[in-house]
Design goal:
alpha/beta, OB fold (Dihydrolipoamide Acetyltransferase, E2P), Rossmann fold, Ribonucleotide Reductase Protein R1, domain 1, 3 domains, five-stranded mixed barrel, 8 helices, 13 strands, 26% helix, globular, binds guanosine-5'-triphosphate, binds magnesium ion, binds zinc ion
Length: 311
Amino acid sequence: MKGLVIKNTGSWVTVRLDSGNTVNCKMRGVLRLKGMRCTNPVAVGDIVQVEDKGDDAPVVSDIEPRRNYIIRRASNLSKEFQIIAANLDQAVLVATLTNPETSTTFIDRFLATAEAYQVPAVLAFNKIDLLDTEEWRSQLDELRAMYERIGYTVITMSAATGEGTDSLREVLAGKMSLLSGNSGVGKSSIINLLVPDAQVRVGDVSHTHHKGMHTTTFSELLDLPGGGAVIDTPGVKAFGTIDFERAEVAHYFPEIFAVAADCRFGNCTHTHEPGCAVLDAVERGDIAASRFTSYLSILEEDPDNKYRKPY
Ligand SMILES: Nc1nc2c(ncn2[C@@H]2O[C@H](COP(=O)(O)OP(=O)(O)OP(=O)(O)O)[C@@H](O)[C@H]2O)c(=O)[nH]1
Ligand SMILES: [Mg+2]
Ligand SMILES: [Zn+2]
């Protein structure tokens, strides 16, 4: 029997079979071995084969090749990887300027990961109801302009007041979307708004003040009323964790890559080289300083080029 993985709690995998029935499965041991460097060999969004012999719990016996996926290192410097979700049409990064503050480095690492794994990314700034001063508003406008100029779709919204949620609905319609972001930015709140009968657990206000508290603890796929689906995921503290080779990093910053063609040296790392078109563009303000800082932070994370793409 074939089906779609809609939940993975670690010990159980919930699969929606083609028949429409939902079954809780165990994982066949050999699949765990195959995905050894992965904390979760099966991810939400995977298409899997299920065997049910009737005597024991059904097992996931095989995984179909993935169209794409989003992956992160399980923790900083860890050699294990976590596949956040597979077979995605897009990945939506939910970010907030305050309560909590999402850093631009976090945003840029997420966007670069999505570029690397060929998943179109969308930025959704939530909790704009909290941005009640001129300064907040202009900070939001600047961020929006910066990311739109690079080519990303940017949504500004509030799950609390409903403002901007129509644009999000439009972006999600008919597609399989991952919702990712720091803990407390409102991913589950957004899902509860979009999927009226979802009733996903949402954090207390006090939760957001305790860093490291996660309300959502496993990934779950929920169908959207008008077609398409969203995947709720546990908040992540850092995306400090991408596995590119040094020379590749610039490929995943579209505006840096576009300019890099004009660098004097073909192997330019855009850090110190003479005739570097990227450094010139940063100087002129054509490439945002925060984006360049994020680029450098990824390079510096792996000075010896020892982390490679796991697959
Ligand atoms: N003011 C305001 N609060 C919001 C908004 N969206 C969510 N919240 C609140 O933010 C807190 C965290 O929301 P959650 O939806 O649990 O956040 P999450 O991203 O799912 O968090 P994790 O599951 O831990 O990753 C809750 O108290 C929500 O009520 C918003 O647009 N404005
Ligand atoms: Mg949540
Ligand atoms: Zn250069």
